[in-house]
Amino acid sequence: MALLEEFNLYIPDSRIEDFASLLSVSKIGSETWCNKHNNKDFGTTRNWLAEAKDAWLELDWRKLMNELMITLGFDSGYVAQGGDIGSFLARILLANHPQCKAFYINMLALLSQNELLTTVNITEDEAQHVQRMLNFSATGSSYLLEHGLRPSTIGLVLSSSPLAMLAWIGEKFLEWPDSRYPLSVDTILTMVSFYWYTDTFPRSMYPYRALASAAAANVLFSVATSKEKPFGYSVFPAENILLPKAWAEKAYPNLVFYKRNDKGGHFAALEQPRIFLQNIEQFLAVARPLIGL
């Protein structure tokens, strides 16, 4: 195992002062019929954005950065874990690198129409979840097309104002978690601050190019994956994308661990870290004897 080294991330005070000045003069858009409602179907509300702006001006994010672990090394093999884009990357790692011995993901998207089976062998909860997934695909995924097909435009717009970035990214942190356990404003501001201070949001959209191209062509995005190495899959009830257990078992004969949790959403590791860690540990307890780690 590679040794971990402490590091310091330095951002000049002038950069922080520029941010505070820009945020303080960023105008909250005029009130409209849509943005004054708390109905999340319309996106970020004006009231939430105004309150979050005030909180962001007071947030001391610097103490959080040194707590971020950025590198882990394993020379005897490793297990990949991912959600969202990471779920695709985990599959690619498993299929192309022998050092990757197994994978565990918490978002499992269809890779082919053959995986879209009947509702005969799924539970009522799963059927309702599938319907929510279809609704999300129809009404909640327009951001994906913007990220993938017009990344330059949206990247320039959101990099011009911290408030614009907060509205765009904050919408996802408000809508995609389990609504029974919403993320705090401080947590959302911290996550958006990482993007702002590192200038990484425009580059973070690169993976959406392939996803958006597939969506625009009305085909499923597909990546190479292993059907032999151990695979673990956990479902969180507010996740936007899923495969019911029966579908996953048919599509992946290497599924050795499945868990449906009773709370959590798209940002499972952020929302329910203890449950998330327990799921990984339970998967590893099954997978380790199979892979010799």
From TrEMBL:
The keyword Hydrolase applies. Keywords: Hydrolase. Residues 5-68 form the Epoxide hydrolase N-terminal domain. It holds the Pfam family EHN. The keyword Hydrolase applies. GO terms for biological process: epoxide metabolic process. It comes from the Eukaryota. GO terms for molecular function: epoxide hydrolase activity. The active site is at residues 84, 208, 266. This is Epoxide hydrolase.
